[in-house]
Specification:
This protein has helices at about 5-10, 45-55, 80, 95-105, 115-120, 125-130, 180-185, 200-210, 230-235, 240-245, 295-300, 320-335, 340-345; strands at about 1-5, 20, 65-70, 85-90, 110-115, 140-145, 190-195, 215-220, 245, 255, 260-265, 270-275, 310-315. It has an 8-stranded mixed sheet with strand order 4-3-5-6-8-7-13-9, sandwiched between helices. The protein has a single domain (about 1-230, about 320-345), classed as 3-Layer(aba) Sandwich (Rossmann fold), CATH 3.40.50. α2 (about 45-55) packs across α8 and α5 (about 115-120) crosses α6. Helices cover about 30% and strands about 20% of the residues. The N and C termini lie far apart (about 60 Å). It contains 13 helices and 13 strands.
């Protein structure tokens, strides 16, 4: 018995239909490895791991066709805890390893697990070029605004004035916006979620897993040892409805416990308004459009406390993937120049023999 799976589901990235043997039904337990999970008690990484394991069965891939690749940092441990294939690579280079793997094995579902220091400091160039090439890889970046594994130094996302072990008088550097970096690099899927928003994180990871192309998800995550409460001002259960806005394509950006707050544009500037005051109606609220780069740019640059923090998918568009373009280029070269001959190539041009 067989199932027909389209290219949108099997990771081939070429849109072609493929007939595969029927796969056994998998559950979260199938993706839990036999390794002891070693993070600090209370770390947000536990939640990210749990939600990742929960969504894996939804994609219909056999475990041996899924690969998790990580760099260095607390997030780097995650591949050990997934019952799939994986690599624990060197600092900042996970996107480069993933690019090579995906070029060689486009049938695999490849995930990169990284942190704000790993991805945006030493790994900044690798991240940018993986995203701009539209490599069919899902990059999940844990953002706790601190270097956790190396014991509490300021990271590229640490707030201005943040007192850390490496900035005892407060940082004098403005923080990077990870979403803005991904947008500038032309990633085709950009999203944000929160470690404690478990159902939202599952939905976000599910959307990321079903996208084909360069995928970047920032997960706001707590480090309760070196930066406890990094995002608490807007993520705690008591305040999250008033201080975050959940993005939904085609729906107005409404938020608040009473669902009476919204974001509208005043000229080119966003502003928070109250529905029912000063003649404001729901029709005045900005409607989210995942394909509009200007909306995505705005959302990547608004921050609490002036604005609610956006969570959800900022940007989702379709473009040919890196592998598709490689295959097309090779086919064109072969059609115009013929099949290559390695022996002929090695013995052509300026060659000489050393006696």
């Amino acid at each position: 018995m067989t199932d027909t799976i389209t290219g949108a589901d099997n990771g081939a990235g070429n849109g072609a239909a493929a007939t595969l043997p029927e796969l056994p039904v998998l559950t979260r337990k199938d993706f839990v490895s036999d390794q002891e999970v070693r993070w600090c008690p209370g770390c947000g990484d536990y939640s990210i791991l749990a939600q990742t394991q929960k969504v894996m069965p939804d994609f219909g891939y056999p475990k041996e066709n899924i690969v998790f690749i990580s760099g260095i940092g607390c997030s780097g441990r995650l591949p050990y805890y997934m019952n799939t294939y994986g690599f624990h690579t060197i600092h900042g280079r996970a996107p480069a390893i993933a690019t090579g793997l995906k070029a060689a094995r486009p049938d695999l579902m490849v995930w990169v697990i990284t942190g704000d220091g790993d991805a945006l400091s030493i790994g900044g160039n690798h991240l940018i070029h993986s995203l701009r090439r539209n490599v069919d890889v899902r990059i999940i970046m844990f953002n706790n605004r601190i270097y956790g594994l190396t014991k509490g130094q300021a990271s590229p996302t640490s707030e201005l004035g943040k007192i850390t072990k490496s900035s005892p008088y407060g940082t004098v550097d403005f923080p990077i916006s990870p979403l803005a970096i991904a947008l500038a690099a032309e990633a085709t899927f950009i999203a944000r979620s929160v470690d404690t928003f478990t159902e939202h994180m599952q939905a976000t990871l599910n959307a990321a897993g079903n996208h084909h192309g360069s995928t970047f998800v920032e997960v706001l995550q707590n480090c309760n040892i070196f930066n406890d409460g990094a995002h608490r001002e807007f993520t705690d259960r008591e305040v999250r409805e008033d201080r975050t806005v959940v993005l939904e394509h085609g729906k107005p950006m409404i938020f608040g416990k009473d669902r009476n707050k919204g974001i509208r544009l005043a000229g080119h500037q966003p502003e928070v308004v109250t529905i029912g005051e000063n003649g404001i109606t729901e029709a005045d609220i900005l409607v989210h459009d995942e394909t509009d780069p200007l909306i995505a740019f705005m959302l990547a640059h608004i921050y609490w406390p002036e604005f609610p923090v956006p969570v959800g998918v900022l940007r989702r568009v379709s473009r040919p993937t890196h592998h598709q373009m490689l295959v097309d280029q090779l086919a064109q070269a072969t059609a115009t120049r013929g099949a290559g001959d390695l022996t002929k190539l090695l013995n052509s041009g300026e060659t000489w023999k050393v006696e």
